[in-house]
Structure formats: C-alpha cells, structure tokens
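Quick one - inputs below.
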Amino acid sequence: MEVLQLLVSGLANGCVYGLIALGFVLIYKATEAVNFAQGDFMMLGAFVTLGLTNAQYMDLPFWVAAPMAIAIMAVLGYLLDFFVLRHLFGQSQTAVVILTIALGFVIRFIAGAIWGHEPQTLESPLAVGDLRVGGVVLGMADVAVIIVTVLLTLFLYQFFQRTKLGLAMQAASQNQMAAYFMGIPVRRVQGMIWGLSGAVAAVAGILFASKGAIDPNAGLLGIKAFAAAVIGGFGSLPGALAGGLIVGVIEPFAARYLAAGYSQIAPYALLLFVLVFRPHGLFSQVRTKKV
Amino acid sequence: MRIHFKTSYEHDIRLFADWWSFFVYAALIVVAVALPWIMDEFYLGEVTNVLIWAIAGLGLMLLTGQTGQASLGHAAFLAVGCYANVIFMELGLPFLIAFPLAGIVTGIVGTIIAIPAIRMHGIYLAIATIALSILTDDLIVLLEPITNGVSGKFAPTITIFGIEIERWTTPDRFYWLVLAVTVLCTLAYRNLLRAPLGRAMAAVRDSEVSATAMGVHIARTKAASFGISCAITGLAGALMGFYAGAFNNETFSIVISITLLMMIVIGGLGSIHGAFFGAVVVAFLPQALSIAKDSIGGGSVAIPGLETGVFGLILILFIMFEPMGIYGRWMKIRIWFELFPFARKDMFKRQKSYLKTERLR
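Output:
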C-alpha cells in the first residue's frame, strides 16, 4: 500500500515536470532551440493567475482568471519571440541557450519585484478535498494535474500530427530554408509556437500552484523538467510526459529507500546515465550523420 | 592602418603581430606589476578578483569559444581545483607543487568526464554539464571525510621560498601571485592557438564534418580541449579558494557556472581579450549597482535578485545587438578609425545559417 501511495503521488509530481517538459519540447520541435526559461515561464504563469485570483490582488473568480492567465502568457510568449528571439534568427543554438538563461534571471527578478519573495498559495478550487481509493489518498489537485496533463499531451500530439499548422511547425524546424520555399511564414510560425508554449507553461503553473506554495525561485524546478525532457528525448511529446513521470516516480522512492544525501541526486544521476548511454534520449529521433 | 606585409609563414603565427603590439602588451604588464603602489588595498582586491575570474574565463573560453562546446558546469571544476589544492597543502605539500598538481588533477577529472561528454552535442552537453554542476554540490556533502561537507574548509597561508602570502595581510603579494598565474595562463592559451591542436579545435567548432574530412580526430581534440580547459579552470578555482578564504559545498554553485558562461559571452566568445573584458563586467557590476543605488537614493534597501536581473538584461541586449561581445564592439570601433574614411557598415555582416534538424520527424 505504501508503495502504491508513493507511486501515485510521484505520478502527480511527474505530471508537473512533464508539463514543463512539454513546453521545452514544443519549442525544440519548432525552432530547434531549448528555452531554458521554461521553468520561469511556469512560475510567471502561476503568479499571473495568483495575481488575478487571490483576494489581496484582483479577486477574480478562478474560472475567469485561469483562462485569462493562459491568454496573457500566450501573448507574452508571442511578444517575447517578436521583440527578442526574432533578432537572433540565424545565430547559433548556443546563443539562444544563453539568452533564455538570462531571460530566466530577468523574469525571476521581475516576479520578485511585483509579488515579493515570500511563498504564496493560490486560492484555487482545485486545492480542496482529496480522493480516497482503497487506502490510497490522492489530493483533488493531484487528480486534476494528472487528467489535464494527459489531455494536453494527447491534444498537442494530435495537433503536431494532424493539423496544417502543426505540420508547418515541424517543417520550419526540419529545414528552415526549404520551409521558406514551400511558402511557410517561418518567423510567424515560430512566434506562434512561443505563444503556445507560454500557454502550456501557464497551465503547468496553475496546476503547480494548486498543489502547494510558489515563490519566484519555483522556476528552478525547470532543471528537473530538463531531466524529464532529456530522458524522454527532446522532440518527442509523449517522451516528455514519460520522462516527467519517470523523474516524478523516482524522486519519492529515492527519498524513501535511499540514504539522505543520495536521494536528491537520483534524478540527475539518472539524467547523466541516460545521456551517457543514449545521448539522444530513450525515445530517440536522431540518426547519426555519416561523413 | 598598419599593413602587415607577410613574407613567410612564420609571420602568420607570431605571438605578436608587430613590435607596436608587443610594446602595448609589455606596457600593460608593467602597469599591472606596478599596480599595488598606485591603488589602495580595496581596489587591489577587486582587481585580483577580476584576474581570477579572467583565468576561469580563459579556461571556459578554450572549451566554448575555441572548441564550440558550451559547458554550464565549470563551477564543478573550480571546486575540484580548489579542494584538490587545499587538500594537497594540508597533506604537507608546498604550494609550488600543490598548485600545479591541483590543475593536473582537475585536467584529468575533466578528461574523464569528457569521455562520455564528447558524444553529446550542443544542448545535450549543456544540460549534462548543468546536471554535473548540481551533482557537485551534493557530492561535496557526501564526501565529507575529505571535503568537510557543509562546514567547509579554510584556505591555508601560502609560503613560497619562505615568503608568506595571504589574501588579507599581504594583498599585494597575493595580487602578484595571481598576476603571474594570469600571465602564464594567457601565454599558454595564446601559444596553444598557434599550435596544431588549437587550430584543430577551431576546426571542430566551425564544422565537425569538415574537420573530420580534413583529418582532425574529433573525439581526441574535444577530449584535449576538455582536459586543458578544466586544468586552467582548476587553477582559477584554487586561487578563488585563497581569495574567498573559506569555502564549502555552496561556494561553487550552478550560479557560478552560469555566470562564467555569460561572462565570456559578454566579453566576446573566442577571444582572449573577451575573457578579461567579461571578468571586469562580472567583478565590478555589484559595485557599480550599489553606487548607482546610492546615487538615486535607494540607500541600504536590499533588492534580492537585482544583480542577476541586471546581469541578465545586459546579456540579452548583448546577444541581440552585439553577439561578438565587448571585444567585437571594440574591434569594430578600432577598425573604423584605422580605415577612416573607408569603413563600411556591411563589413561585419555575419553570415546567416539556416537551421536543419537531424530528427526524423
């Protein structure tokens, strides 16, 4: 029973990692760049919702505030691409990596300046009550996280496989120049993907904030989401979710069964292990280039 | 403009392009040596800090600027160098042996880590090195019998041929020591660039496919780059330990890794000057910010995250408008004056590369 409880709470945590990892993967799929600020995006999304919902700020009903926050984050994502990342067009991937890390610093500073550095809780209707299934206790927030994550992953997967825009996004990353020749507005498509990943980050933020308190450093969770994205292999949406779940499940088990110092390094050790033996993730989509 | 009329291949690989630049750098060294008589102790300490950061920057520059492998985990190697040096000295080795030995140990550790790392590319390498940086913190705690864990260690006093060197009591001697190491590292770096290995590194950075075609052994070049880069970084780490006086598992955090990478980007990737310019920015930014805060009447109000926020903003502006960093801007201004009035705007236009993925779908 204890094992089952650990497993279930691990899955719920893993879904949050998976959601952040989805944001990485979206941007990676469309622009071949990694947004190291995705965790901070999530934190910002959570704080925007908190600012709209909580009594001491705007005091809007949660079900009005949540879609608004998602829309705000989508617009922010698009504007970020429009004003900043579009200027990097044609620069190396490393430049984007460094830029997004810097962006994370700036977002953390801005969030701290607006909402302060004290941990705050979101007054969310998801946070009340819990579900008991035969001895396993599961918070309603955890149930919501799992359901939303699975639905969102399915939706995004279908979006990339079936819709015209999704295919255009893949084409834009696979070969930018060819995509131009095919009449795909590559820049606008990239802007849209940043908007989309902003929206996904907001969803992740809302769910994360429903599970517990947030503060401006919550974005550092993004590093664990990296582990998730890498284990799943960048560029694969179901892989990101699977990676998130693996990391999420390993954490409580490591904390329960390993010695104190070793438990927190378990996800990173796994990350290094996967990178060493399968450098492109478990769900690899890369062939080695032959010379 | 000075025109270099090259009559032999030797001219291409000389350490200094002409006598003028030799005199400029010689003058710079004379000024640097005379600095303790010019500056007061506080600013001398700051300059020492700049030089230590510059050595660490040189180390990372070799890997990231010269070989094109972005590492976000170099604080780990700072830590290895720092701990190795202090442990050797506690075992009774004199500084003159312990210090190079610390560099060698760090270099060996770096080469061992490079063996899996050379299979990774760009982003994957960056993430693996982030994980490494996080693991270092925990490993130092786990290895408590050697590292003293959370309570940390204290840097001993350096003795070279009976002369005692300590950061607080004799800041001028410590400054000269750091300066000597800086000059040696810079000369080693500059010489490496003239050697076949340095050129192989640049070839790997520019195109691995072309480098292979030209007969460069990619894995060996990358491993050598990792090793030398880590060795230099380890030396910087040892000096950082002396500069800080005391250190524990949190001294060499991931923030240091990130700052180090950002520093060389702001300074200008791929140039020796860049490491120094970046180090000046990193070391003096906190001072400049507190002076600015005082002048607008902010007084003693501490704003958490302000430093990193401003640093991030500066970096974003640099990557957007001057990807070549401070050194790139300086080159542009210098060439504009040298060519006056013939400089054209499109002389520095960078070639755009279009993106292609290696994924199947």
